[in-house]
């Protein structure tokens, strides 16, 4: 028997897991991970202003913040739509 995290799992004979069905059934019937797992809740993703994301990077210089804002808008348009905002390349950071 193997005991971990308050669970006990019976040891299996050598070569037991060579049969994929044995492995599957064991995981489905005895896997404590399922009980310990946290439910992943649905997420809501809204586009954000690339300038805001870049300006929050306090460790970057003004030039690097501008480059980051431009890069995010160019390479990740789904996440960073700016239909109602000014063009990122014209905005600069102070």
Throw out a few tags for this protein:
elongated, 4 helices, 94 residues, 2 domains, single chain, mainly alpha, 2 strands, 37% helix, 6% strand, disordered C terminus, two-stranded antiparallel ribbon
Describe this entry's structure for a reader.
This protein folds into 2 domains: 2-36, no CATH class; 50-90. It is mostly helical. The chain has a two-stranded antiparallel ribbon with strand order 1-2. It has helices at 20-30, 33-36, 50-55, 62-75; strands at 2-4, 7-9.
Overall structural domain count? 2
Helix-strand category: mainly alpha
Task: Characterize the largest beta sheet: strand count, sense, and whether it forms a barrel.
Answer: 2 strands, antiparallel
Look at the structure and give the mean pLDDT.
75
Estimate what percentage of residues fall within beta strands: 5-15%
Could you tell me the number of beta strands?
A: 2
From N to C, what is the helix and strand string? EEHHHH
Task: Report the radius of gyration as a whole number of Å.
Answer: 25 Å
> Uncertain spans, ≥5 residues at pLDDT below 50?
88-94
Helix content: 25-40%
Which term fits the overall shape? elongated
Distance between the termini: 63 Å
């Amino acid at each position: 028997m193997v005991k971990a995290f308050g669970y006990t799992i019976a040891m299996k004979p050598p070569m037991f897991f060579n049969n994929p069905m044995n492995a599957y059934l064991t995981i489905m019937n005895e896997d404590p991970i399922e009980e310990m797992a946290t439910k992943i809740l649905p997420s809501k993703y809204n586009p954000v202003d690339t300038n805001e994301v870049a300006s929050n990077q306090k460790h970057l210089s003004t030039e690097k913040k501008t480059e980051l804002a431009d890069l995010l808008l160019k390479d990740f348009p789904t996440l960073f739509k700016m239909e109602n905002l000014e063009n990122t390349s014209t905005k600069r950071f102070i």
